[in-house]
Amino acid sequence: MKLVLFFLRILLLFPSFSFSIQTNYTSIFSFGDSYIDTGNLVILYGGLTATPGVLIAKPPYGMTFFGRPNGRASDGRLAIDFIAEALGLPILPPSLALNTSFRQGVNFAVGGATALDREFFVDKGFMAVSPFNISLSVQLGWFDALKPSLCSSPQECKEYLAESLFIVGELGWNDYGIMLLAGKSVDEVGSHVTEIIGNICAATERLIDGGAKTVVVFGIPPFGCAAASLVLFANQTGGEHEPDTGCLKDLNLLSREHNAQLRQALARLQGRHPAAAGGVRVIYADFYAPIIDFAVAPGRYGFDATGGALRACCGSGGGRYNFGLAAQCGMPGVSACADPSKYVDWDGVHLTEAANRRIADGWLRGSYAHPPILRSTAD
Fold first, then answer.
1. What's the whole-model pTM score?
2. Is residue 177 within a helix (H) or strand (E), and if so which, with residue range?
3. Which ranges form a coiled coil (predicted)?
4. 321 and 233 Cβ atoms separated by less than 8 Å
5. 60: preceding bond cis by omega (within 30 degrees)
6. Cis peptide before 371 (omega within 30 of 0)
7. Cα 10 to Cα 18: distance, rounded to the nearest angstrom
């Protein structure tokens, strides 16, 4: 199976508050796609020893930190891993793992997941959709089914979930990617932004209604900056590149539109659940701005100044972006660059551990989330 996933930006500023909010979390519950999947996709395919068609189950995935493939679409840790580490919590186990304790958190994210339900794509005959039913609504159903094993009464659940951090990870990338791979124009794809945002925000509100007090919602990365996008969609989008980043202009406009609508919808959601009334905090995690920053000035962030932002580290596709469908990371004979820490793009779509670390730090302490996750009061 070829994973279909891509990238985005825009700052979200919520109203300021002057009181303390929960920041000492006892567990994390996360939902999303391959940007934060810690092993569910590989488990669905039968595990690391039985996944001939799943490239992330093959070397050199996991080479930097784990020393072997581990179900993550990167050379090492993901942003979710760094968030857990910063909170003093264990790395999140995938929800499909057996004989595992989920008391300190669990990850429901699955590579290939969409914000829209799978039926939307199947009914329209899209071929790139995942063979598994793993959309955001399905992941929420998995969480509901798990709750009785985590807390035994409504009051206990309320107290337990209030001390938990909820993450609605990057969603929408696969929805747009599936449509683009089917030959749809950027305008046609963009006509579904509002529907996709509606599903993301409905899921967020469902978590809040169920007891969540802090929900971090990711935007999408700049779709036009991924090496895979630059190779596969240049002709489909007209091929105009942004002068400052080198990314595809039309696809980045799609990402910005998604993020702008998400920002507005989350602000309305926060308004319906005032922090002053119940301590609910909705945090927008900007996934677009950091990657744009890396593309504009890679050397400033420790990446290779000539090709570290847009060129894939792992692949044998050659050319400017080192990406090709016949020579993808994980395929036989395909190798990785000597030093992944100098690259932003790991495999044409996903990020290196180095990029994930910088982005996570910006969400935890810096300017890429509003307010930062580790700040008890908003600016």
1. 0.91
2. helix 173-181
3. none
4. no
5. yes
6. yes
7. 25
Query: Residue 336: helix, strand or coil by DSSP?
Result: strand
Query: Which residues face 167 on adjacent strands?
Result: 30, 216
Joined together, the tokens standing for residue 48 give 């690391």
- Token pair for residue 166? 């909820």
Q: Which of 328, 322, 325 minimizes the C-alpha distance to 310?
A: 322
- Residue 236: count other Cβ atoms within 10 Å of its Cβ: 17
Residue from 126, 25, 113, 14 nearest 73 by CA = 113
Is residue 192 annotated as part of the catalytic site, yes or no? no
Q: What is the mean pLDDT of each run of 10 residues along the chain (379 residues)?
A: 33 30 83 98 86 88 97 98 97 95 97 98 93 97 96 91 97 98 95 98 97 97 97 87 97 98 96 80 97 98 93 93 96 96 98 98 94 69
Sheet with 27-31, strands from edge to edge, namely: 105-107, 27-31, 164-168, 214-218, 281-285, 369-370
The H or E element that residue 230 is part of is: helix 227-232
d(CA 83, CA 353): 13
Does the annotation count 241 as an active-site position?
no
Q: Which of 164, 350, 361, 370 is catalytic?
A: 350
Return the pLDDT at 14. Answer: 27
Q: State the catalytic residue, choosing from 30, 34, 74, 137.
A: 34
- 154: amino acid identity, one letter: P
Element (H, E) at 295: helix 289-296
Burial group, residue 25, by CB count within 10 angstroms (0-12, 13-18, 19+): buried
pLDDT reported for residue 107: 98
Give the model's pLDDT for residue 2.
38
* Residue 347 designated active-site: yes
Cα separation, 77 vs 66, in Å, equals 8
Residue 317: alpha-carbon gap to chain centroid? 24
Which of the residues 75, 250, 347, 361 is marked catalytic? Answer: 347
- Would you state the structure tokens that stand for residue 312, as one six-digit string? 């894939």
Asked if residue 217 lies in contact with residue 243, where contact means CB atoms within 8 angstroms, the answer is no
